[in-house]
Write a structure and sequence with these properties.
heterodimer; A: 122 residues; mainly alpha; B: 585 residues; alpha+beta; Penicillin-binding protein 2a (Domain 2); Beta-lactamase; 2 domains; five-stranded mixed β-sheet; five-stranded antiparallel β-sheet; 20 helices; 18 strands; 39% helix
Chain lengths: 122, 585
């Protein structure tokens, strides 16, 4: 009885030791991985910082203005080009039956708003 | 605790059989040894109980940890804190997050000449990658045989990579930190610059030196780079056109004093501050103080209206110059008649303004200007802040000259903040270069009635519609403003040919959101302007161009010309009626 118990106890102890060793090894490996990941993060953060600076440098307003002048056929926005929704003239009564229904107008308005929101977003 | 089981063990002693003396003698040979055995037994028991207790405690703790306190252990693996980049100095960004100043690690190339086998070949290959180096110089350096020679400091990452790819033995890199300003001279005066040891020497870099070192999140300024660029470009163009020696410009949010643009020209490269003359590093917008000229009439009229000294229907006779002691106050383009208050403002009459200031009084003028922050240095977050030059003592003649902007020199920052208070409803907001939290209520100081501010808006709009500021009328943006032309004081005398031409504009005048100030130092008259170099000819067009460019960016919706309700006619009709009354008298 005692012998069986002893053997059992010994086996349990040996099993526990093995398991502990295994876990410890795993933790060590993961810590190593973590260290590599951390140094990678630092490297990438540094690279991001460099890229952010370069992006800011390339976006100098003077450079953008020059590029726009060279490649785009755009002009300075004037106040006349702004029209409020309320100021858009509606169709005359004779073409009223051809006018889009309320729902289409609503959809159109929503589409325009989405488009302008998308344009405003950086 | 140890005593308790000892006492109890006494009772646990087994009964001693005394019926069998032999056996008793065998077990307890003597009374003495029996005593010893008894003691040993007791101690053993005591120790046993102590150990049992200890094991119990350990066992209980095991159960406790394994079963009961499982809750305190995290079930999920904890996320290891990610490594954060220690740049040593926080970035500075504009209000939209555009990087204005950042610290980068750079590689500097040095050589150990002892390890370089073929200096000529190495130099030839190196110059291919770094074309700005001289081949002969490098070869000479590499041939010296010294163990440490700088070849090039602060390489770009691309150059670093290319040099590495050459694989020349004996070349090494030293990692260094350097402050970069991607926008260079555009924000040089407000952002400032640092020395080689990363200490801030001017601008925000200096005034927030400790803050920038102590944090890793970027410091957001109130500047808007696009607005800054528009102002810089327009001022630069005006400077070139009129052959001026300098210029300054400000754009300020009237609601909270945020500075969207602060321009001082000529500017300098903050990465090489030493390369520019000291005059370029001088911040004309905050450190320079100037006698502003007629733009100061804004405060004279506001003060007189607020004190109740005059109403918009009153006026003064401006037909005769004022002579005080050896001074004569005259008008540039005299109307030689009675002028109403709106007319005095519109035609920028010095005589009218001086009379108005005299009626208001020196004490009232002084306290009014003090509340507008014009008598003490601006509270902006820069160390380069000019102290205003005040007349000592402040006499009656000073009151008169200050009425039209002479005899009191202030910085453009002070002037712009004060003008913002006049148009925003009468609340003074100190100028700030830091971005305010959106929606945060700014705590300003009320310096005049709201009604006075509303009247001033109409008067300023009148100047742009019908008066001296017509060239500032950016269509659709309801610009209001005031021109100013001041002779510069050079060696104690007013110079006739050296002037400061300025314009203070605000828009949109029905509910002002921004004030725009432009000032050009020593413009010369040109053919296009018929030889004029006044505020109306030089600075007003700058303000118009700037407003036309920044209006759409800042979300100010333009109003169509015919939609403007108040065309200023009312102000003049009142005045005309009064003129007739005077004539009848």
């Amino acid at each position: 009885m005692t012998r069986v118990a002893s053997i059992l106890l010994f086996l349990t102890a040996a099993g526990a030791a093995l398991f502990l060793f295994h876990i410890k090894q795993q933790v060590r490996e993961m810590e190593e991985e973590l260290g590599i990941a951390q140094s990678n993060i630092l490297r990438h953060q540094e690279a991001i910082q460099v890229l952010r600076t370069e992006w800011s440098y390339l976006n100098r307003p003077a450079r953008i203005a020059e590029l726009a002048e060279r490649y785009l056929d755009l002009q300075q926005l004037t106040a006349r080009q702004f029209v409020g929704f309320a100021d858009i003239p509606f169709r005359s009564a004779s073409t009223a039956q051809l006018a889009p229904s309320q729902t289409t107008t609503a959809t159109l308005t929503a589409a325009v708003q989405t488009a302008s929101a998308a344009r405003d977003a950086p | 605790m140890t005593r308790q089981p000892e006492q109890s063990s006494l009772n646990l002693r087994p009964p001693v059989p005394d019926s069998d003396p032999d056996r008793a003698a065998h077990i307890f040979p003597e009374g003495c040894s029996a005593q010893v055995l008894e003691t040993g037994r007791t101690r053993l028991l005591a120790a046993g109980v102590v150990f049992a207790m200890a094991f119990l405690v350990v066992g209980w703790r095991l159960v406790d940890i394994a079963v009961f306190s499982a809750g305190s252990e995290s079930r999920m693996a904890a996320v290891a804190p990610a490594a954060t980049l220690q740049s040593g100095r926080a970035d500075i960004v504009d209000r939209n997050g555009v990087v204005l100043a950042t610290s980068l690690r750079t590689a500097s190339l040095y050589a150990n000449a002892k390890q370089v086998r073929d200096p000529q070949a190495a130099a030839a290959r190196l110059v291919e990658v770094l074309p700005d180096l001289s081949r002969t110089e490098i070869a000479a350096k590499l041939a010296t045989g010294r163990s440490f020679i700088w070849l090039k400091r602060n390489l770009t990452p691309r150059q670093h990579y290319r040099v590495n790819r050459l694989g020349i033995p004996g070349l090494y890199f030293e990692r260094e930190r350097r402050r970069f300003y991607p926008h260079g001279s555009l924000t040089a005066h407000s952002v400032g610059f640092t020395d080689v040891d990363d200490r801030g020497l001017s601008g925000i870099e200096r005034s927030f030196d400790e803050v920038l070192r102590g944090r890793s999140t970027p410091l957001a300024l109130s500047l808007d780079l696009r607005v800054q660029h528009a102002m810089t470009q327009e001022l630069g163009a005006a400077m070139a056109d009129f052959d001026a020696i300098g210029a300054a410009g400000m754009v300020m949010d009237v609601a909270n004093g945020e500075v969207l643009a602060m321009v001082s020209l000529p500017s300098f490269d903050p990465e090489r501050p030493g390369a520019a003359p000291a005059d370029n590093r001088f911040n004309r917008a905050s450190l320079g103080i100037y006698e502003m000229g007629s733009v100061f009439k804004i405060f004279t009229v506001a003060m007189a209206l607020d004190e109740g000294v005059v109403t918009l229907r009153d006026g003064y006779d401006t037909s005769k110059p004022i002579r005080v002691a050896r001074f004569t106050i005259n008008d540039y383009h005299g109307k030689n008649r009675w002028l109403s208050v709106p007319e005095i403002f519109m035609y920028s009459s010095n005589i009218g303004a001086a009379r108005m200031a005299i009626d208001t009084g020196t004490v009232a003028q002084r306290s009014f200007l003090e509340r507008l922050g014009l008598t003490h240095p601006a509270s902006i977050e820069l160390s380069e802040v000019g102290t205003p030059m005040l007349p000592v003592p402040w006499r009656k003649i000073n009151t008169m000259t200050i009425a039209y902007g002479h005899g009191l020199a202030v910085s453009p920052v002070q002037f712009t903040s004060a003008a913002a208070a006049v148009v925003n409803g009468g609340v003074f907001q100190p100028a700030t270069l830091l971005k305010r939290v959106p929606g945060e209520a700014a705590d300003g100081v009320r310096i005049m009635d709201r009604a006075t501010s509303l009247k001033m808006r109409r008067l300023l709009r009148l100047v742009v519609r019908r008066g001296t500021g017509r060239k500032a009328n950016a269509e659709g943006y309801l610009v209001g403003g005031k021109t100013g032309t001041a002779d510069k004081l050079i060696n104690g005398r007013y110079a006739r040919n050296a002037r400061i031409a300025s314009f203070l504009g605000a828009f949109p005048m029905d509910a002002p959101r921004y004030v725009v100030f432009a000032m050009v130092d020593e413009p010369k008259g040109i053919e296009r302007t018929h030889g004029y170099a006044t505020g109306g000819w030089v600075a007003a067009p700058v303000v118009r161009a700037v407003i036309e460019r920044i209006g759409p960016m800042l979300g100010v919706s333009p109003v169509h010309a015919d939609a403007e309700q108040d065309d200023g006619e009312g102000l003049l009709v009142q005045a005309r009626a009064r003129t007739q009354t005077v004539a009848v008298d």
